[in-house]
Amino acid sequence: MTAKQILAAAIFTAATCFATSATAQTYSPTGSGTANDVAATQVDYVTVGATMPYATDTAQAGLAAWKADLAAAGFTNTVTVSTRWYVDNNELAGATDKPSIFIAWPDQPGAHTLKVATGIAVSGVATSCAPAESQKMVYVLPLPVAEFTSANQVLACTETMANIGYKVAGIGQKQLAYTITRKPMGQAATSESSTQNVGTGVTNAGEFEETVDFATASAKYDDANATTGSFAVDNLAPGYIYTIELTGISDQISRKSGVTAGISGNRISVAVTPMPSSTKINHVQNIE
User: Fold this and answer.
1) Residue 132 bridge partners (DSSP)
2) What pTM does this model have?
3) Cystine design at 273: which of 66, 126, 128, 157 (Cβ 3.0–4.6 Å)?
4) Are 127 and 244 in contact (CB under 8 A)?
């Protein structure tokens, strides 16, 4: 499955879930999970701590017609459809017969198997057919990380642009959130927030699960996964001191998960030399 297919499936799942009545169901598995409990037919990627919607289609093909035929033939048996949800083969309490649920994934990277089992029961029948199962492997990925790598800079008065170096690690395109504080000489400072996209979209979905050792509880992104680069801050003015502070980062998976990694204390300053000025030349009389 390609990255585009994965993201499209996730968007469809979320839309389906919100279109039907959903009951929030919280599940917090212990440990890091195991990637090989069940052979999953689908894959999902979320960020640690994300609460995500999942839904299943409980309609059974031809069942309504069969129930009508059953009644027409004089049977009074009751036919019901049952739905049960499981994570790592543990049934989610309170999620029985819910077509859609929310799962709060843990704050720890890991791999988990999400399963839904749908069965048909007929009253008066001692033995029912085995439920049909659909499985999804859910990889819970670490938060992306970022830092500015540039040192403080002093620019000449004619320079209007500064390059800000960064180091980031995460999946696909990352988005840096930062604030710029401008302080003119002898005046009050003003601040504004901005964002900068860095990197490109995911082209190989297989890189997701290869990024993290899920057997390690403290798994996180580090220099081995990091990429470096720079972006430009322009329209700088003479006599100003600029402070650029990194406040957060998201990546392709965390944005889908609605999670942003907050960052504090990572800032650099850029000072632009004031423009020289001169006044008219006055004659000074000799003093005897």
Assistant:
1) 118
2) 0.72
3) 157
4) no
**Residue 130 identity (one-letter amino acid):** A
* Strands of 51-55's sheet in order across: 23-24, 100-104, 51-55
- The residues that bridge with 100 in the sheet, in sequence order, are 55
Quick: pLDDT tens for 149-204. Answer: 999 999 999 999 999 999 888 888 889 999 999 999 889 999 999 998 887 665 44
C-alpha closest to that of 179 among 99, 53, 264: 264
Encode pLDDT of 29-88 as tens digits. Answer: 544 444 444 444 577 888 988 999 998 877 777 888 888 999 999 999 998 888 899 998
Distances (CA, A) of 25 to 37, 74, 115, 177, 284: 22, 40, 14, 32, 87
- Residue 267, CA distances (Å) to 147, 166, 179, 247 in order: 9, 11, 9, 9
Distance separating alpha carbons of residues 162 and 264, to the nearest angstrom: 21
CA distances 227 to 144, 147, 172, 198, Å, are: 12, 11, 11, 10
The Cα 251–Cα 259 span in angstroms is 9
Collect all residues with Cβ–Cβ distance below 8 Å to 261 and sequence separation of at least 6: 143, 144, 145, 146, 248, 249, 250, 254
Longest dimension (CA), the chain: 133
Residue 83 exposure: Cα atoms within 13 Å on the Cβ side: 15
C-alpha angle 95/100/103, rounded to 5°? Answer: 65
CA–CA distances in Å: residue 146 to residues 71, 190, 222: 64, 25, 10
102 bridge partner residues: 24, 53
**What does the alpha-carbon distance between residue 47 and residue 105 come to, in Å, rounded to a whole number?**
8
Work out whether strand 110-122 and strand 132-141 pair parallel, antiparallel, or are unpaired: antiparallel
Structure tokens that stand for 101 in this block = 């649920």
